[in-house]
Amino acid sequence: MNDDFDRVTLSDVSRHFGRRSALSHVSFSCAAGDIFGLLGPNGAGKSTLLSILATLLQPSAGDVRYGDCSARDGGAAVRARLGLLGHELQLYPELTAAENLRFFARLYGLRDIDARVRHALGQAALADRADDPVSAFSRGMRQRLALERALLHDPRLLLLDEPFTGLDQGSATVLIARLRGLAAGGRMIVIATHDLDLAEGLLTGSVVLRDGRVAAIHADGMAVRARYEAAVRPRAAAS
Amino acid sequence: MRKSFVVWLGVAAVMFVVAPILVVRAPYESTMGLVQKIFYYHAPLGMMMFRSAFVSGIAAGIFIFNRRAAADRVSLAAAEITVLFGSLVLITGPMWARKAWGVWWQWDARLTSSLLLWMIFVAYLLVRRYGGPGSDKLSAAVALFGMANVPFVYVSVNVWRTLHPKTSVVPTLQPGMREVFWFCVAAFAVLYGVLLALRVRLATQQAEVERLYLELDDQSELS
Amino acid sequence: MGQFMRTAWLVMQKDLTIEIRSREIVSTTVFFALSCVLVFAFALVRDGRTVVDAAAGILWIAIAFSGTLALGRTFERERYTDTLRALMLAPADRPAIYVGKLLAIVSMIFATEALLVPLVALLFQAGLFAAPMLLGGILLTGTLGFAAVGTLFAAMLVRARSRDVLLPVLLYPITIPVIIGGVRGTAALLGDPPDVAMAQFWIGLLLFFDVVFIVLSLWTFEPLMTE
Questions:
Q1: How big is the A-C interface in CB pairs under 8 Å?
Q2: Residue C58's CB: how many other CB atoms inside 10 A?
Q3: Superfamily for A1-81+158-239?
């Protein structure tokens, strides 16, 4: 089985928790070079969908395919090609930046760990803070480090959950530039975000979720805000 | 309700009408007198309780590895019955102990093992109730580990007990008593089957209601 | 197999590094264990003096209570930083993560016992060091059994509600054989002369318990932790 894939496809994915339906009949796909947005109000199911894409959650119905490989059969090989930047940054505050990176590099079974860690610290502009504990970092610094951690193993699919939260303008610009660079390099990026203005110009496509369902899918990144508002506009009251 | 179920329900009812009559008619045990007759209910309850714990544990194992919701429902039903029968064992046991040995509780090996098993399955139900989402998997782990624990509990409590002088006396059964005893065992076995089937059916219907809710949700969105 | 052990070692090393830096769990656990011992010392009094035969029981109750706290804290840490998800996301062998966590917890509880055992010996004039190898055997097998079940349950409870109260509720009934074995084994060693055969019996039983429940945990860890 070829672990590398250049397309992720969701077909009719649903997920419920008891009586509550979190996602219903969600279908879309994205390909290498895409920066795909998951948009929607709070509780729309964005985080659930990201968890499913990260194989941390199984859908109650429907299928997720990474290339030709189904999520169910993929196992560790698929996980090795995924990177997740969660809302909680998933870093150990007591360890230093370098130690965090080194731990995850070893956990992923990577080679040339020292070189990779050095490179990652450089990309995150944290080379001079390598031996400081993460607890001393600002949100922006932790975010940069967490992003590099998610990229250490050169994943095909990068998932980001609200990455612009708590970032100042400068950091946001840096992040956007980084993401564009990664997509240009052939990776797929899926971003769940509330920040429509920042998403404008960054996304190459998006899906708007509402109450767990797809309210709209767009194949390009234009007029994000206008389209979003059109999609989530309250429905006309049924008489 | 299926016809066979009603038949078994009838059988159980008849057996439980007959059982007390047989118990009253059974010969008196020489040393303990009337109180010994609790044994005819206490022992079968104990047997069924252990059996139920195993059913719950095995069903839980199937649920964990195969993720079949039906197995989870059986596990839950069996766990509830384990707690129910266990409670009855723990009530009838001291009643006997009080009359036979003068104290309500004296750490008899069998009764202590039953208490521990009962506690494990009470923990199962507590997790189910208060654990929030995902508690079905959690409780399945409790049932599986609890079942695996039974031999260890038995051995450790028994060896622990040898340090205390009093041991439990399982009465040797006179011929007149044996038939009554086995009749009661059969009666409780039928009752167990009926209760389990009933509870599983309830759980299955609850699952169906949830499925219908989800479908309704689906339909209303599409319209 | 090599990769499995490397992953387990890596996770254990990470946990112990964090603990050595912050010293949070071991210090609070030791202090709590000390308080436990004192409460029992004051509570179990006969003729105005503490009942010394209770030493074995008090030791193991303190181990159980403080062990439960340590388990809760370790996984609370992972929950707070969401790093448990990061561990599950990695392509590493999931049971190896369990083993790593288990080894780290056992180390932490051992560190607590290293202080607790002499303390109990002192306060209760209990000759705990008459047969040190056997005592070590009982502590090792007992702690391993308790931690094996505890690590699995604490990991599962990370995503559950009411997790602080549910951990003891789940853990204690299932680890009763461990407590019985630990207490009776330790008490056997406190006899004059120490009852070696009895202690060896309990060590054997505890070892058997450890094997069964570690295997069971390894088997069920992945299906229980994934949804």
A1: 70
A2: 25
A3: P-loop containing nucleotide triphosphate hydrolases (3.40.50.300)
